[in-house]
């Protein structure tokens, strides 16, 4: 459950299975800090309502009958949607996972995970984390080409370590435990890395790291 005073996270569910949508809505609305502002069977219907709703995170299935998750992601960004997208799927190819990360999704989570994992993932993404199933990290490193434009900034060994753990979806506290540092020191390092990469969020950091720094990590 969310802590008292925690900001409410507004969610939209886009999945073509009615039973899944309805069940997920009932489960998530038991959480005091989560609220469902809309549920839709198609990307088209969801997009038509997106501009009129306050949506922080879209929970998006990959396969939407004749549509795909990428259709929604591209169209939503084109229309100026500034929220985050969490892919919630029964399965996805490595290639499509890479494409969705490149398109800016904040996470990919399997439907087989317990509800508690989903709720925690939603909260992490709302706070700026990137949450990917670990099985997709390898394909991301192998498949994303190094960006030909611009000269990458020089990263220290600590920068690289922080960035590696960020790519794995670890929180600042977990990174601190891994490196034997204080959480405050890790926060400072994350700010330094963000400044060097010229990004503001972890999702942006993941994208830039995979495009420009994967050979160093």
Please tell me about this protein's structure:
The structure is a single chain. The protein has 217 residues and is an alpha/beta fold. The protein folds into two domains: 9-132, Response regulator (Rossmann fold, 3-Layer(aba) Sandwich), CATH 3.40.50.2300; 144-216, Arc Repressor Mutant, subunit A (Orthogonal Bundle), CATH 1.10.10.10. The protein has helices spanning 18-28, 43-50, 69-78, 94-103, 115-126, 137-143, 157-167, 172-179, 183-197, 202-213, and strands at residues 9-14, 34-40, 57-60, 63-64, 67-68, 84-89, 107-110, 131-132. The protein has a six-stranded parallel beta sheet, sandwiched between helices. It has a two-stranded antiparallel sheet with strand order 4-5. Strand 7, helix 5 (115-126) and strand 8 form a beta-alpha-beta unit. The longest helix is centred in the C-terminal third of the chain and has 15 residues, at 183-197.
């Amino acid at each position: 459950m969310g802590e008292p005073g925690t900001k409410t996270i507004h969610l939209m569910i886009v999945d073509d299975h009615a039973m899944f949508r309805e069940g997920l809505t009932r489960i998530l609305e038991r959480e005091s800090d989560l609220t469902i502002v809309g549920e839709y069977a198609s990307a088209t219907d969801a997009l038509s309502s997106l501009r009129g709703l306050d949506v922080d995170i879209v929970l998006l299935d990959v396969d939407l009958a004749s549509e795909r998750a990428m259709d929604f992601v591209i169209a939503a960004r084109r229309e100026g949607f500034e929220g985050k997208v969490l892919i919630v799927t029964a399965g996805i190819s490595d290639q499509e996972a890479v494409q969705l990360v490149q398109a800016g999704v904040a996470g990919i989570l399997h439907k087989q995970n317990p509800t508690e994992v989903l709720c925690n993932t939603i909260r992490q993404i709302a706070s700026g984390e990137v949450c990917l199933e670990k099985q997709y990290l390898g394909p991301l490193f192998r498949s994303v080409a190094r960006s030909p434009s611009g000269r990458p900034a020089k990263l220290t060994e600590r920068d690289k370590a922080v960035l590696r753990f960020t790519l794995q979806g670890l929180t600042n506290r977990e990174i601190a435990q891994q490196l034997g540092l204080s959480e405050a020191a890790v926060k400072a390092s994350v700010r330094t890395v963000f400044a060097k990469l010229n990004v503001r969020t972890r999702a942006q950091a993941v994208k830039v790291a995979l495009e420009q720094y994967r050979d160093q990590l």
